[in-house]
Amino acid sequence: MNPAIVIPSYWSNEERLGESGSVACYDHATPIDTPAPQLADCLKSLEQVAGLGSVIILVVASPDVEERAVHRVSDIAAASGLPDVVIVDSFKAAGLRDQYAHMLPAELSGAIGLVGYGAVRNLGLLACCALSCDVAVFIDDDEVVLDPEFLAQAVYGLGAQPRTGTPVVAKSGYFLDHRNSALADRRRVHFYDRHWSKRLEFNEWMTQALAGPRISRSNTVCGGCFAVHAEAFTRVAFDAWITRGEDTDYLIDLRAYGLDVWFDNKWRVRHNPPRLSDRAFRFEQDVYRWIYTRRKIEVLNSNIDLHKILPEQFMPYPGPWIGPELETRIRKTVNLRSIFSPERHAYMQIRRTWRKDAAAYAEQNCTNYMHFQTHWAEIAALAWQNEAMACMLRGQGMLNPTVAAHVAQARGMDVADECPDLVMEETQE
User: Fold this and answer.
1) Smallest Cα–Cα separation from 31: which of 12, 53, 51?
2) How many other β-carbons are positioned within 10 Å of the β-carbon of residue 203?
């Protein structure tokens, strides 16, 4: 196998990007002026990894800081000493998009790109295709790798055929927190959080998974420790319309299309997330997420060619969040937090709008993923071992001179004078 490490890296002037209820909203973007970005520690930890090949960094940034973010990522990558780092910015993303744009209706064009968790992951998968990497190993930029055999552990079991008949083409590890624990913090939650806390259900599932065989069927996905083989990622894409939780949502999508995610209890990373204060924002994003997911499942289940997705398949977690009790959980939580939480004013606003707005978002977008899926395999096939795409990703040329000129003009540059290495000569007839 030829695995590539894929690292989405989020940058902004603020702690997060975008507005609530949008896919372009991220809950822990790196402030552009931070003196010690966690990405540096992440890349430093990869230096020890045996057999390391390509490392693909996807630079997600608000327009006002994108150029600075690319420079910062480039400097961090250069300082790391890693031999093969591919940095993907909006310039390169535009070059890729120009190649497959004719395959997608305009309303689906945002499903691959640098806006939204799912679209970013899809861009990473296309990059793997172009670079002939048959395993995408996702980690987050606020994680560090603990084991020199990280890649060997990542591909362990991939391709196996369990007795269930469902091949191991995608698998999740887990992360250790600052307590060196894989379990959610078991300290008593505030009374106004008790209807929304997942720790009891998650810990019940995780405890069983850690005590079981090394490879077992998974109910959830740690997107920062996730390996997916081309057998899966060229068939099934991530959902670009989900506001958060695109990793666990991908498990649902894989099952619907006849595949699955497995859990490896020997494969792990350490997670060092920044401390976040804006809980109301993350709650609202989760409300949109779960309501959208449940509506999408109804659409998936209406297709006779797909496998049925039922909440009881995902017990103890995340089944309760995709079942009939979801609205009750939301209502009780937002009512309590709007009175007793330190962010009560924000929750008051959510209480007034969540039911109408989240339902409208779900209804408006619930069929988009299935429509996109009808095009994904063809797009992945176009990208697979595409030498021109690979050259562009490595900074050896742009696929389309028109795209290069357009982007350069937008940046106030003369493309021929300022970035000649970014333009490929047109093929002579």
Assistant:
1) 12
2) 18
300/307 Cα distance (integer angstroms): 8
Query: In a 3-state reduction of DSSP, which class is residue 8?
Result: strand
Separation of alpha carbons 35 and 301, rounded Å: 48
DSSP 165: S
**Residue 170: Cβ within 10 Å count:** 25
Amino acid in position 103: M
Contacts 24+ apart (CB under 8 A), 32-40: 32/61, 32/65, 32/68, 32/69, 32/72, 37/72, 37/76, 37/141, 38/141, 38/142, 38/272, 38/274, 39/7, 39/9, 39/73, 39/76, 39/141, 40/76, 40/79, 40/80
Helix (H) or strand (E) holding 145: strand 143-145
pLDDT in tens, 54-97: 999 999 998 889 999 999 999 999 999 899 999 999 999 999 99
- Tell if the pTM clears 0.85, that is, is over it: yes
Nearest Cα neighbor of 129 from 386, 372, 393 is 386
Using alpha carbons only, what angle is made at residue 300 by residues 123 and 129, rounded to the nearest 5 degrees?
A: 20
Q: What are the tens digits of pLDDT across the range 197-217?
A: 888 899 999 999 999 999 999
Q: Does domain 3-276+370-396 have CATH number 3.90.550.10?
A: yes
The beta-carbon contacts of 186-195 under 8 Å, at least 24 apart in sequence, are 190/340, 190/341, 191/336, 191/340, 192/333, 192/336, 192/337, 192/339, 192/340, 192/341, 193/333, 193/337, 195/328, 195/329, 195/332, 195/333, 195/336
